[in-house]
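Supplementary Note 3. Input sequence used for the single-chain structure prediction.
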Amino acid sequence: MYIAIMAGGSGTRFWPASRQWRPKQFLNIIGDTPMVLATYQRIQALAPDERILLVVGEQHRAETERLFAHTAVNILAEPMGRNTAPCIGLAAKYVERLGGGGPLVILPADHFIADAEAFRDCLRRAAAVASRGGIVTLGIVPTRPETGYGYIERSAESEQENVFRVVKFVEKPDLQTAGRYLAAGNYFWNAGIFVATPQTLLEEFSLQMPAFYDGLESLRATFDQPHFSEQLKSLYEKTESISFDYAIMEKTTKPVYVVPANCGWSDVGSWFSLYEVRREQEQDGFGNIQEGNALLLNCKNSFVVARGKRLAAALGLNNILVVDTDDALLVADLAHSQEVKDVINRLMERGLTRIL
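The predicted structure, written as discrete structure tokens, is reproduced below.
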């Protein structure tokens, strides 16, 4: 088994704690370990370091090399963000170069998993299926009607124990539709975790993104060579930004399978989702979570993160998010915290890129 960890995201939804130079996956969001390192530790039992690949942004290469200096993992740096399809294609080509004939597990670097062993069991099951052909995805067993995730509809009958054929991928639904999916019992959340052999993936890229595939082929002999970065940049400049779901999964004619995963997963995609994850272990008697030098009085269901040099005191708050850093302060309705991107857009319009 080979494993590729995608760690190239910008992490803007966790501003002001996350910045362009240190996005979410490099922060200690949960616990005292950066998320990318926690992801590696979670899957370390599945493959030796020589079969683990991290794909990061060029601006985060130095930080990645520092975090993983004690390991023998492979590190590839993308010259610019082009979403998940080019990232996965690049990983498949690199693993093929490493001699990867077995399944390749592809997973994001910034997810939370409560039950690591259950997660690993799902990946082992998916790898066994993928080794026989086709593409396998993990489907997260839903716990609520969620409108922020895409869904996977499975077949009525299983192919084997806890393995189903995928009927279709579904866009993010409205609340009523999400409720129907939850009640039906044959829909899963799409976590963006895939397993397939490099050969299967590259065959799909040759069919669905032929120009990009040809570019990958031309890179075959240049990996780890001095001029590789320049050639990869040239290829990425000509490549559209597109997700793996849109580019490959919705078009492939190969068999696609889903393995149900009940492992306490969260994409930790917003301050609110982080609050939900941490609430089980950290909340006080009034549903509050506080981090750092914070003081909460008469507050309920609020999240106060003090990462600056001053005391953050909150009085009489209800369902409020406060994130304080040395150079920026965010105060928001906790339920609307996923809209931080609107703040980012406004700051960009004003040219305040120094605090992004």
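The chain has a mean pLDDT of 94. Residues 2-266 form a domain with the Spore Coat Polysaccharide Biosynthesis Protein SpsA; Chain A fold (CATH 3.90.550.10).
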